[in-house]
Structure prediction request, 135 residues.
Amino acid sequence: MRLKNTAERYGAVTKTLHWLTAALILGLIALGWYMVDLSYFDRWYNESLLLHKSFGMVVLGLGVATLLWRVVSPSPAPNAALKAWEQRVGRLMHGTLFALVLALPLSGYLISTSAGRAVEFFGWFLIPPLVPVGS
Prediction:
C-alpha cells in the first residue's frame, strides 16, 4: 500500500482524506435534516448545533489538508482513453466539488461568527471569529 499518489493511482492518504470527508459531509446533511425539525426548546437543539458546527470545522480542516496534500502528492494523470473534452469536464467538476468542500463549511463558520461570537469546537476550545464585529 502506497501512501503517496503515483502516476496511475491514488495513494492511501488521498483515499482516506476523500472518504472521510465524504462520510462527514453525508453525516452533516443528515444532521442538518434532523435539526430542521427541532424547536429551540428541544433538549437536542443546542447539542446538535454544536456537533454540526464542530464537524463542519473538521470538514474544512480536511479540505485544507487535502489541498496541501495535493501539493505534496499530485493527482494521477487522467485516463488516456477519455477524450480531451471529457478530461476537461472531469477536472472542472472535480474542482467545483472541491471548492464546495471548502466554501460550504467556511460560509457556515462566517455565518456562525457574524455576531462576534466564537465557534465552540466539541466543547474543547473556541475558534474565534475572523472579523471582529464593529470593524
